[in-house]
Amino acid sequence: MFMIGVVIYLLFPVLQGLNISFNNHISNNNSLHINVIQKWAEHKASVEQISLEHLGEKFNHLSPKFSKVLLLVLIPLTAIALYLLFRRKKEYFFDHMMLAAEINAVILFLVFLILPVIFVGISKLLPINLEYGDTVIFLILHGILILLILVFSFKRFYQVKFLNALIKAFLFIILYMLVLHVYRLIVFSIVMLFI
Hints:
Elements: H1 2-11, H2 22-31, H3 36-48, H4 52-69, H5 74-85, H6 93-125, H7 136-158, H8 162-194
Helix pairs in contact: 1-6, 2-3, 4-8, 5-6, 5-8, 6-7, 7-8
């Protein structure tokens, strides 16, 4: 399912998705006081004898190709997060990998394909201008949907009670934000190596 989602996402990208621009990489990491990314970029620009803006253009040109292929890295990273949350359940790591693939497939389909198409369809049918992407309505809607999906997935897969599943879902979302940050650092690093 995840591979089908990745292929569809590669062929029909509705949103920029998990790929972010060079400037956003720099500013996001600087806001987290991770200055090594900016220093690496400045060093790379000086070695290549180009401006930082030109390096950013090269990065932005290569990055979409790498970020979509590297979506596969999300599965083991997500499985590690699941293992940390549910290590007392004595599941094999492979089981966490399977659920991680399903969770990432749902997020990929829901956030980057289904909800944007629904928002565009509603905007065309009704005289409402619903925007998708980083708007408050879109973020709240997909946050609630993902939370519900996680709660019911955890209840069924790990056979935990509702409250436990809800707490673990909130904790998983926090860990998943860390997973996404690690993924973006991996994408940044690999793209910088190929510039």
